[in-house]
């Protein structure tokens, strides 16, 4: 059934203009912001013991719907997009329903203010449009070719793409892979499975493992430092013991402007998990890595706790904890 536009559903969104085309950099920024908003919304809904389908009814039942509505309308009517928060996961520990309802209203208000899921769909289409420079996998495919990693294999490799935005990116269209499994939390295409990687069933055998995993601009949206470490560990359980690789992409500030994470620190973490860095590229705002995984026996079991590595004003708190 065709989804109605936001204009037909909410009067607040009448002034919202959803462009048919967005520049790749703007698209990626919008996608990342929507991912954060939707992740934060899910955290709040979990705390309220509700779901996307029935949370408005829940708010009415507990008497906080007006708080939600007022907070939502305040964002829509009075706050400019440029002044909206551009970072931070929400902390929903030990908070009251009134606070949660207000927070939920602000999140929904910003979603509407930014054009709703219509805008997200447009951004998702443009964000990995290779013709417009939006496909981060171009570095991966270039490196695979340069290193001739799969050129001599008898059986074509397979790949898992975590956080896939388009089934037409270079990973899918290169013909290097026999199969590409694409997953994303907010799938906008039938060829992309709506799935949380952390909830994906573990492989039962080697046939369910992969020769390559792409994790592009995903790790930075994992809620906690410990969960990020768990995600990297989990990646190894989906890789073949031999001839397997990881393509990792992070916003550059995660390693250049963080108190708790540097490029050298990332290298130590990845090495402890059995990864060998083959390639690294630092673009203007993004960092790209290609790793070879040397198998489960190469893991050292070393722990990495939260520790300040660099001090300074205006730095972010991105961190990866492996314990």
Keywords:
seven-stranded mixed β-sheet, Rossmann fold, 2 domains, 11 helices, 323 residues, alpha/beta, disordered N terminus
Explained architecture:
This protein has helices at residues 6-9, 24-47, 55-61, 65-78, 97-113, 116-127, 137-147, 170-173, 225-237, 253-256, 263-272; strands at 158-162, 179-184, 193-194, 212-216, 244-251, 275-282, 286-293. With 323 residues, it is α/β, with parallel strands linked by helices. It has two domains: 24-127, no CATH class; 136-298, Rossmann fold, CATH 3.40.50. Strand 4 (212-216), helix 9 (225-237) and strand 5 (244-251) form a beta-alpha-beta unit.
User: What class would the helix/strand composition place it in?
Assistant: alpha/beta
Q: How much strand content do the residues show?
A: 5-15%
Q: Strand count, sense and closure of the main sheet?
A: 7 strands, mixed
Write the CATH fold name of the largest domain. Answer: Rossmann fold
EC number: 2.1.1.-
Family: Belongs to the BMT2 family.
Protein name: 25S rRNA adenine-N(1) methyltransferase
Binding site for S-adenosyl-L-methionine: 163, 184
